[in-house]
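INFO worker-7 received task bundle
INFO bundle size: 2
INFO processing item 0
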Amino acid sequence: MAIDLHIHTTASDGCFSPTDIVKSASQNGIIGMSITDHDTMNGVEEAVNCGKTCGVEVIRGIEFSVDMPDDEIHIIGYFNSPVSNEVQDILKTLRKKRIQRAYQILAKLSKLNIVLSIEDVIKFTGASDYIGRPHIAMAMIEKNYVKNKNEAFNNFLSIGLPGYAERDNGMDIENTIKLIKDNNGIAVIAHPGVLKNRDYFDIVIKKGIDGIEVFHPSHDSNLMQEFLDLAKKKNMLITGGSDYHGNGDKNPEIGNFCIDYLYFCKLKEAF
């Protein structure tokens, strides 16, 4: 009984539609999952409805980003019902700010003789109103400025590099957790092992996060055991997932990284 609680779709920076993702999950033996797109829930209800016909239980989710001086913290919110209009309005604002940020990144890249128009980027976003750095990376690949996404991020688009633009989205740790909990959601820190500054992990826990994403492809066995022990010690929820985006896949192949059904049950019990 496989579970994957961290999946992205074309609603943000994934390569496959919510319907394609859920159908693939069903075909690969996954019985429970969550769509956790960045700053949008526009693909969630499509996934929930598809799950009902495919025999896959889909938990509503979203991945928020909190910028710190030298790092970025991701917080996932899980919900058992559609979120309020207030949350949707906040998400619309966050997506607008992402578009503004995209223009800033393009201006920085232009100074490096990497010339891209916003149209070059939008062609990779499909019908979504979300623009993320991966879309800019894809435009860079198409124009032969880089060979792959890793090169784009490692040389230009990551924090501290010449093509990076800071994001002023108004979200901090405290108000992100509060927004999730005020809407009867569960707040979980995503992939804490990728944090450059581990002090931020401690801060998030002190701010009242509900759970830890223990199982993630970026965590080795030692990290997973460390986070698992900490979650149990502090009586926190334990989650995990593939963080699937589908980069380079011809077809969605969900199921390569899943977690135990027991953790899924405890998450649902917490609603």
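INFO item 0 finished
INFO processing item 1
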Amino acid sequence: MISKKIKEIAKERIEILFDLAEKEFDEHPERSNRYVRIARKILMKVQEKMPKKYVFNYCKKCHHYLKVGKNATIRKKKNFVNLTCKDCNFTRKIYVNKKNN
């Protein structure tokens, strides 16, 4: 069984890796993609889910870091938003609750 302390350290590392991915994306996009893969491996080791604030910052199919306008597009439909990765053309639907808008 994995302790709470280990899971806490893993979440801190995930935050650091996503911050680095964001900073490095403009100059070294391949490095940002590597940071995302490392973050996913850490989460798999500790059997945790990706924190909600980072779920839509990477492509679920190719595991690349996504930055809207650079390698991702957003299209708004009626009840959902489409987030498309330009690297692999994977489209992810994000359902929007109309009550919260």
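INFO item 1 finished
INFO post-check item 1: The longest helix spans residues 4-24.
INFO post-check item 1: The mean pLDDT is 93.
INFO worker-7 idle
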